[in-house]
Design a protein that fits this description.
alpha+beta; 12-stranded antiparallel beta sheet; 7 helices; 14% helix
Length: 441
């Protein structure tokens, strides 16, 4: 540094006082040049709703209890991207049965089976889609029936819908049962993707061979399951995959042939779900079925497939109107306390439904961006967090929403997962709580 300044003094013939002034000026310029806007240093690490000198509380009074899903009759299950089949007996939630209704359409409009056609077999093939819930080592009994009523493209089917079907099962082997193997590829003539194969009665195949026009009038199948041993499982199938089909194997003049009916994306299919919650444990049944709401202080529940939801109320928020406060940040925290997570893993996502003064379910004003709103499971902390700042502020200042919300499993029509979580008891830690940052003025 000494040589540096000596050099400049030599070049500019500066006096010592000038050197000092120049040094001060240079220091100021360097300092100003390195300074950034306040918003870019440190503050960007803080929550944008919490920049003020806010007060924190997590003792806001909440009341909560779990109930049967309120609008299951309107839960649309038509042409879903996932189609679950199976039966599970949950030690907490009771039993759930998932069934499938589906059209099967001939793969070709021109069919010639030949004059000497002879049936070998007819097989229902269902391609696994990769998801399951429960214990796939437990065998499941599969039941297959022929539909007697056509599925309509103009009808929206829900989880409780029913379409007429024959009372006679058409599975070749009575009381057929199997273990699902969603990750196991199968070799027939070549190595095929994981799937199940259920042989059907020859009568259906012979009917198709006798008159190919009967395939065009074929209305489809009802496929269901029931318990066989232990607790069972629910498994996801890809109905519109080309492998999913009714496969007709036949010979013509000793030559082996195949023909199939598939479920194209234009075909109608839907799922039904039946819950028997009375088969659950005593605590669950007393709260969900017999409406002992005080039990919500200890445990609460949520279940996909239109099973169970939890009503959460903020009874004293409107009284804060006189307090003159601004909500900087409000987060609802839900803590998972479920067991057997390898067999009954919690939902990846939850969501919240608000209610307007007319009693209609509505989106919360915070539910505009997944990153902001939250609801994704944090496996490390075993919790979900929802940012509901705007909703809480609205409850305090306005009347656009009722002071209660419903917590539900996200994508419930295609999501079988369930959740046990902490109740509202203030003596419990952690508990269902509202973490609130606010500023008074």
């Amino acid at each position: 540094m000494k040589n540096f300044w000596n050099l400049h003094r030599a070049n500019f013939n500066l006096r010592p006082l000038h050197v000092i002034l120049l040094l001060l000026l240079t220091t100021l310029l360097v300092s100003h040049g390195c300074r950034k806007e306040p918003s870019s240093i440190g503050l960007n690490l803080r929550d944008r709703d919490n920049l003020l000198n806010a007060t924190f509380t997590d003792t806001t009074t909440l009341t909560a209890y779990s109930v049967v899903y309120s609008d299951s009759d309107t839960m649309n299950t038509t042409n879903l991207r996932s189609s679950y089949l199976g039966y599970v007996k949950d030690p907490v939630f009771g039993t759930t049965t998932a069934c499938i209704y589906a059209q099967f359409i001939p793969s070709s409009t021109v069919v010639n089976f030949g004059a000497s056609r002879e049936l070998d077999s007819i097989v229902l093939i269902l391609r696994y889609s990769g998801g399951w819930y429960g214990d796939t080592l437990n065998p499941i009994r599969i039941k297959v029936y022929e539909l007697e009523e056509s599925l309509s493209t103009s009808t929206t089917y829900n989880k409780n819908s029913s379409v007429a079907y024959s009372s006679e099962e058409i599975t070749y082997y009575p009381n057929i049962h199997m273990r699902f193997a969603p990750n196991t590829r199968i070799r027939i003539d070549s190595l095929l993707a994981p799937h199940i194969r259920i042989r059907l009665k020859n009568e259906l195949g012979n009917r198709f061979l006798a008159d190919s026009s009967t395939m065009r009038s074929f209305k489809g199948l009802y496929i269901c399951a029931e318990a066989f041993q232990n607790n069972g499982s629910l498994v996801n199938f890809a109905l519109t995959d080309p492998l999913t089909s009714i496969q007709l194997y036949y010979k013509n003049d000793s030559t082996s042939n195949q023909f199939k009916l598939t479920v194209p994306t234009t075909a109608v299919r839907f799922n039904t779900y039946q819950h028997d919650h009375k088969m659950g444990n005593t605590e669950f049944v007393n709260q969900v079925i017999y409406k002992d709401t005080l039990l919500g202080e200890k445990k609460l529940y949520a279940q996909g497939f239109g099973g169970v939801q939890t009503k959460i109320t903020f009874p004293h928020l409107k009284a804060l109107r006189e307090k003159k406060m601004v909500v900087n940040k409000a987060e609802l925290v839900i803590t998972n306390i479920g067991e057997d997570l390898s067999v009954y893993p919690p939902p990846t996502r939850l969501t919240i439904r608000g209610v307007n003064p007319s009693g209609r379910f509505v989106f919360l004003p915070d539910d505009v961006d997944d990153t902001y709103f939250g609801g994704r499971y944090d496996e490390t902390n075993k919790e979900y967090r929802f940012r509901i700042t705007r909703y809480i502020q609205d409850i305090i200042l306005r009347d656009r929403f009722e002071p209660f919300i419903y917590l539900v499993v996200r994508d419930a029509p295609i999501n079988p997962h369930r959740l046990l979580f902490k109740g509202t008891d203030t003596l419990e830690s952690p508990r269902l709580r509202l973490e609130l940052y606010y500023t008074e003025y």
